[in-house]
Amino acid sequence: MTAPAQIRSETVYDALIDGWSLVLRVLAQPCTLQELAAHEGLDAAVVEKRLVPIERAGIIRRAGDRFEAVASAIYTPRLEGMVSGLSRYVLPLVTQVVEKRGDTLALQLDLDLQPAEQEALRSGLVQDLLNDLHAITDEPAARRATYTAVIVGSSDVPPAGEAGERALETVRRCARQRSDPERASRAVLTYFDGLIGFEHVERAEAAVRRAASRLEHRVVHERKPAYTIFVAFGRRDAGQGEGR
Amino acid sequence: MKRNMIVAAAVAMTCSLFAGTAQAGGIVVDLREPSVRYHSVYSLGGDFGLAAASATGGVKAPGGSGGSNDSDSDNGGSQPVKKLANGPFDPYGPVSAYEVSQIQAGLITEDEAAAGCGGATAATGPAGLLPLLVAAGALLRRRR
Q1: CB-based contact A192 B27, cutoff 8 Å
Q2: How do residues A9-53 score in pLDDT, each as one tens digit?
Q3: Under a CB-based contact definition with an 8 Å cutoff, are residues A204 and A134 in contact?
Q4: Which of A154, A118, A188, A94 is nearest to B33 (CA)?
């Protein structure tokens, strides 16, 4: 179990969404049914029932009395409508930032990037950050919680304004940009969820800051920026990030 | 055996694509990727419909059943077709005039309209996903 998996089927995607918290738990480490039930705070019979579609979809498998993930990480495109996708993944954390709730790290950088550099962001800097976050979820930990990262990049840069409102406007512009075939490849709209040990959260935040610092020399203050990137990392409110 | 093959195709390993090889990791969703990948052609001079050249999976007719999109597509994707003129045969079902206007406005892609995602957008109002985000912003302002 060392390679990431790429989901390409709506059936598997639906199973993933329904069993999201169980999949995250099993991705972090193989678990018995009883361990999963204890983490979820549910009856073992209920959890076992929920595991069936995830196992049938091939996302997890049984190894003795434990359930393990078939891959070290899961990558999936959005296999649902844009509005549902935004509501499910992006808006909860962005709303948290806008409302200044929770302890969320949020950064927005206005950049002077050429189109080719903008296009390379997803496979370069953003992928490096995701790899760092995956690695941090791999660290042993006594207690873990679901931490989320949202990375939004657009060449349709919103005007200066209040930070939260601007983040929301960046999401809107990015979501619109990806529907324009000419500019879609330069939009970044990526979401990460992972179980991170409490003692490793600072490292994860440092990884986010490190990714941002790699762009520091391209930040523009007085000239009109060609690109903006918004990154948020934090623990989603209870009930939103876990137990979906 | 057949099911295992399908699963293997659906959850494809991508070891060469990603450098990270940790034992544990998280889940990543790329929202910018379109719901389905196939080539489509539609003509405003013909039937309002999409003639899909090839489909690689997960394709549903607008308003069709199945998948995680049901609630969305049921709202707007299943509107009656407006036949304006003779046009190409549409193997994946009709796309409503409303969805065509969404495509023209650049709010949804043709692929998404064909997959029923236009219904999701149409259901939120004439400006597609904009009202959702505007409403989210307004809600936040009111809460302050």
Answers
A1: yes
A2: 888 898 999 999 999 999 988 999 999 999 999 999 999 999 999
A3: no
A4: A188
Read off the pLDDT band of A181 (50, 70, 90): confident
> φ and ψ at B123, to 5 degrees?
-65, -20
Would you call B22 and A138 a contact, using CB atoms and an 8 Å cutoff? yes
How close A143 comes to chain B (CA, Å)? 15
H or E stretch at B92: none
Handedness of CA A112, A115, A78, B119 (dihedral sign): positive
Q: Which of B9, B29, B106 sits opposite A89 (nearest CB)?
A: B29
Chain A residue whose CA is closest to B9: A8
Residues of A in contact with B13 (CB under 8 A): 3-6, 71
Interface test with B, best of A10, A101, A137 (most B CBs within 10 A): A10
> pTM of this prediction?
0.70
Can you spell out the DSSP letters for A93-154?
Answer: HHHHHHTT-SS-EEEEEEE---HHHHHHTIIIIIHHHHHHHHHHHTS--SSEEEEEEEEEEE
Question: Which residue reads 């929301």 in tokens?
Answer: A168
